[in-house]
Design goal:
- By secondary structure, the chain is mainly α.
- It folds into three domains: about 45 residues, no CATH class; about 80 residues; about 160 residues, Orthogonal Bundle (hpI Integrase, Chain A).
- It contains 14 helices and six strands.
- The strands form two sheets. The protein has a three-stranded antiparallel sheet. A three-stranded antiparallel sheet has the order 4-5-6, with no helix packed on it.
- A hairpin with a 4-residue loop joins strand 4 and strand 5.
- Helix 12 packs across helix 14 and helix 13 crosses helix 14.
């Protein structure tokens, strides 16, 4: 914000909601300075829509989410909204001037509660995007968390399910077995599976249109096996809307992650290195183990680049090579 003379008059030059504005003050320099000083006070800033140091960030959060909504998947939007809403609920009345301190307190409280570095980094990263949005739209003039550090993440080794574990999981999952089977026989991402609709499933021809992809690969058509067709046909209820729904008829969200963990425990499967994404990873590994071409793996999994698919193929191939070498007996 600045005071400047234009012609014979003095103006306050500032931004409101990202748009540049000028307010005429006076033709007298002394009077203009006094009015300008008053305008800079916090109460005057608020009345003119200019962001003061004590600006409440709730509206910035709402505007940020509103802009993101059409650009991301519904599940991703729901996750972002939940993360920010929970944080703002804990950091009551957070303002720009206190954001760094309150966010640090919130993060460390969650760390003590046992939250992983990955989850905490997601929260920090989302707040960094929020304040960056405020800077870009000129709603705020400085970023108090620009240099806030992320936690070092310990990469958890991920493994695939063995065939024995697959049978145990399906055997102890009841109505959820068709969901796990769909993951295992299609390699869908969780965001793609929960977005799957009956209109996208052709049971007669054994194909499925996958529309929920997060990559530029976009919509892809994949074949589905006779076994999966048979199991999908057993899903009760009308074939409209989402294929996989909760008992209340609503779309699955993060509750599906919880159900997967519960079924692993029920089946007596060691959870170490396993999460719901392991089902997709198991599918990819089975493809590679059967010598499926990396390009075919890319098409089925919806990878933007064949490099990711080739990486999966190479790891499996190297493991198979080691097994082959172990068979060499010189005795």
């Amino acid at each position: 914000m600045s005071l400047r003379k234009i012609g014979n008059s003095w103006f306050a030059d500032f931004y409101i909601n990202g748009k540049r504005k000028r307010k005429k003050l006076s033709g007298n320099r002394t009077t203009a300075q006094r009015l300008y000083n008053n305008l800079v006070s916090k109460n005057e800033l608020k009345s003119h829509g200019i962001v003061p140091e004590g600006y409440p960030l709730d509206k910035l959060k709402d505007d940020f989410l509103q802009e993101l909504k059409p650009l991301i998947l519904p599940k991703t939007y729901h996750d972002y909204e939940t993360i920010l809403d929970n944080a703002f609920l804990e950091m009551k009345g957070v303002e720009l001037s206190t954001l760094r301190r309150q966010l640090n307190e919130y993060i460390h409280a969650r760390l003590e509660a046992g939250k992983s570095s990955k989850i905490l980094n997601r929260t920090i990263g989302l707040f960094k995007r929020l304040t960056n949005f405020g800077i870009k739209t000129k709603v705020i003039t400085f970023d108090p968390i620009a240099d806030m550090q992320f936690f070092k993440e310990k990469r958890q080794p991920r493994r695939v399910l063995t065939k024995k574990e697959i049978h145990l999981l399906l055997e102890h999952s009841g109505k959820y077995s068709v969901i796990w089977l769909t993951f295992l026989l299609t390699g869908l991402r969780i965001s793609e599976l929960i977005e799957l609709k009956w209109d996208d499933v052709d049971l007669e021809n054994g194909t499925m249109l996958v529309r929920g992809s997060k990559t530029e690969a976009g919509v892809r058509e994949i074949p589905i096996t006779k076994k999966l067709v048979t199991e999908i046909k057993k899903i009760p209820g009308k074939r409209e809307g989402f294929v996989f729904k909760t008992k209340l008829g609503t779309q699955f969200k993060n509750n599906l992650l919880k159900r997967f963990k519960e079924r692993l425990v029920k089946a007596g499967i060691d959870r170490e290195g396993l999460n719901i994404h392991s089902l997709r990873h198991t599918f990819a590994t089975l493809l590679a183990s059967s010598n499926t071409h990396p390009r075919h793996i890319q098409a089925l999994l919806g990878h933007k680049s064949a490099i990711t698919s080739l990486d999966i193929y190479t790891k499996v191939y190297n493991k198979d090579l080691k097994t082959t070498m172990e068979k060499i007996d010189l005795d």
